[in-house]
Design a protein that fits this description.
binds 1-deoxynojirimycin, alpha+beta, Beta-galactosidase, Chain A, domain 5, 7-stranded parallel sheet, binds calcium ion, 11-stranded antiparallel sheet
């Protein structure tokens, strides 16, 4: 890390500062223009963001946006490497130039604001820092002025915000000038001159989550409000999350940016106890109607079923088992009754001690389940005891869930993505860390890279997953995710459904595509989501790939793809030499050419290729597949066919 100095200047109401990326190609310009603050961004001298306003609007105080003078500017450069506990890439370089501009109002009450900018080769970030100051101990943020003025003729891909199913929607492609309703971030944009950018945020703590909306022909941040309409109540000093714009020439390059993780702090403690895993679940049987979450004749979470599934985990080599519906609270309409969910009381037909003892004897871990139905008050009353309860039985993993259109917090109905929601998710995560519990959060707050600081946040849902199969999932969805949702971190997509033609829950995918997801949709907790008989009896040949594929990778190289159409990625085993390649296509079949330039030279690899047959189709021939073995080397090129709604998976084992 090198510092290149700080600079004291006379207060200036008009000033311009340029912050350049280490390779000098990305330039952020910050302006104070007659006291008003704004910024714009170029890459290779081409405009990415036009002049975009900055500032915070406060409740009961004048905005922190105008009448500013610059009192001091401080710049530094950082170039460091860090090692992840898990992820798509083990060694990560964090390289940026930073400028902090210290501002003071030149009118009473002369409040202070610092704008901190970081410019990376792959994008820009900035945040508002409001220092502790005599006139202000707290502030109530009523709105954020932050603009991202992209060309409104750009194309964009996003999901709508403020909807009852949170982030669980199909991606919509439309011109930026049509973004008149708020959308969630990451918001992916292709500018008319061909840049691909992703607008998002990093390190979201104690603040409403940022959505984006068109306002007077400019994209503007729209912070998720609390039930009283305010965006955040904070004490000073306070820093907002980083507002980020990742910039790439190709949509594939968006997927390899680690800027969001880099903008988060390293962990404050040692997380060596964290361990990515794969798990089966007493789960899909509920979705296909064979079992129920609620107690009764077809109750899924019985001691007997748990024993059977533990045996299956052992036979299949899957280290963990999720059990949903084990506790009191699922009776009747669980979405309504969840207000009384009990997280320390199991149903009479589920013996937690017997199940966890049996699991331990067989070397299988149990993934506990906390479905809160968004009743945060009820959950927080039990949270610490509920974790202690699980720890006492040796449970180290918890899948949590927040079904429901809003959360109940402090007796009010709040958005999941509001400041109070963000605070709750964080509380649950930090308490989990205290008890060495690893989380898979469903209906979560979106990823903003905080898993760098809290690696026990192994994965989250936060998008439409396979529970929406049986009608609401379309093949293009999995071709949108890598370029949108997955830019914010891993996802528990609940992959590996082999019973693709099930009458009550038909899957819009060929069977081979289910394997591809383990590579194209990164998650450090990967579910083998179907019932064990479909792995052991129906397709043990395909299951071999699920057993082999790792849950963390040394590095990841996207090979080809187009937003909403296809995605192919190669990932190298963590600290290993084997490679895994996954590919998915939308409703159209396509043949792809893969150049194996990334393999080690002068080495033979045994390739096991799982691919769609020429006549496979996600609608009427899902089970058409071929498994072949080949010897391949660096420099080889292979052609692989993906059927409509299909995909492929390849394991390359170094000989
Ligand atoms: C929604 C979650 O996404 C799903 O995985 C879970 O089974 C149900 N809620 C019930 O908790
Ligand atoms: Ca869900």
């Amino acid at each position: 890390m090198s510092l290149f100095g700080s600079l004291f200047k006379k207060p200036k109401r008009d000033a311009i500062y340029e912050v350049k990326s280490p390779n000098k190609r990305v330039v952020l310009t910050f302006m104070v223009d007659n006291g008003q603050i704004s910024y714009f961004v170029h890459k290779d001298e081409k405009i990415i963001l036009r002049k975009s306003r900055l500032g915070l609007i406060l409740n009961d105080a004048s905005p922190l946006a105008d009448n500013f003078s610059v009192v001091r500017v401080y710049s530094r450069s950082v170039d460091e490497n860090w090692t992840a506990y898990w992820g798509e890439q083990r060694e990560i370089r964090n390289n940026y130039n930073e400028t902090a501009v210290y501002l003071e109002e030149n009118v009473e009450p002369n409040r202070l604001l610092t704008m901190r900018f970081r410019v990376f080769d792959d994008g820009i970030a900035f945040r508002y820092e409001v220092p502790a100051q005599p006139e202000m101990e707290k502030m109530v943020v009523a709105d954020e002025i932050t603009e991202f003025s992209v060309d409104s003729n750009s194309r964009s891909w996003s999901i709508p915000a403020y909807q009852p199913d949170r982030y669980e929607y199909d991606y919509v492609e439309r011109p930026v000038y049509n973004l008149t309703e708020s959308v969630h971030t990451p918001l992916t944009i292709q500018t008319p001159i061909g840049h691909y950018i992703s607008i998002h945020e990093a390190a979201l703590y104690n603040y409403g989550s940022m959505t984006i909306k068109l306002n007077n022909s400019s994209l503007k941040s729209d912070i998720t409000p609390l039930s009283d309409g305010m965006k955040a109540y904070v004490e000073l000093p306070f820093s907002t999350p980083w507002r980020t714009v990742t910039i790439a020439h190709d949509p594939l390059d968006l997927t390899t940016s680690r800027m969001i993780l880099n903008l988060n702090d390293p962990p404050r403690e040692n997380f060596d106890w964290v361990e990515p895993t794969k798990f089966l679940g007493i789960w899909w049987a509920m979705f296909v109607g064979e079992w129920t979450w609620a107690p009764g004749e077809r109750h899924g979470a019985t001691t007997e079923h748990a024993f059977q599934y533990i045996d299956a985990c052992k036979r299949l080599g899957i280290p963990a088992l999720l059990i949903e519906g084990w506790n009191e609270g699922w009776e009747g309409d669980w979405l309504e009754n969840g207000v009384n969910n009990k997280f320390m009381v199991s149903t009479p037909d589920f013996d937690m001690k017997a199940v966890t003892d049996y699991a331990r004897q067989n070397g299988v871990e149990i993934v506990g389940h906390h479905e809160t139905v968004g009743f945060v008050d009820n959950y927080e009353n039990q949270l610490e005891d509920a974790y202690k309860f699980l720890v006492q039985y040796g449970i180290r993993y918890v899948k949590s869930g927040y079904a429901g259109s809003k959360m109940t917090i402090g007796g009010h109905r709040e958005y999941h993505h509001s400041q109070l929601g963000v605070l709750h998710y964080q509380k649950a995560l930090e308490l989990a860390a205290k008890y060495h519990i690893m989380l898979d959060v469903h209906e979560p707050i979106k990823g903003t890279g905080i898993e760098r600081t809290w690696p026990n946040l192994l994965t989250r849902e936060g998008a439409r997953g396979q529970e929406y199969e049986g009608g609401a999932l379309v093949p293009s969805h999995a071709c949108h995710l890598p370029y949108t949702r997955l830019l914010s971190g891993g996802m528990d997509y609940t992959s590996g459904i082999f019973d693709v033609a099930n009458f009550s829950k038909r899957i819009a995918s060929t069977i081979v595509r289910q394997l591809a997801y383990y590579v194209t949709i990164y998650s450090s907790m990967q579910m083998a989501a179907d019932r064990p008989q479909f792995y052991e009896e129906s397709h043990p040949d395909l299951f071999q790939f699920i057993r082999d594929v790792p849950t963390r990778f040394e590095r990841s190289i996207p090979l080809l793809g187009e937003i909403g159409k296809s995605f192919v990625v190669a990932r190298q085993e963590w600290k290993g030499s084997n490679w895994f390649i996954g590919g998915v296509t939308n409703e159209e079949g396509r043949k792809v050419e893969l150049y194996l330039d990334f393999l080690e030279p002068d080495v033979n690899y045994t390739a096991t290729i799982y691919r769609d047959s020429e006549d496979a189709h996600y609608r009427d021939h899902q089970l058409g597949y071929v498994i072949e073995e080949k010897v391949l080397r660096r420099g080889d090129k292979i052609d692989v066919y993906m059927a409509p709604g299909g995909g492929f998976a390849i394991k390359l084992a170094k000989q």
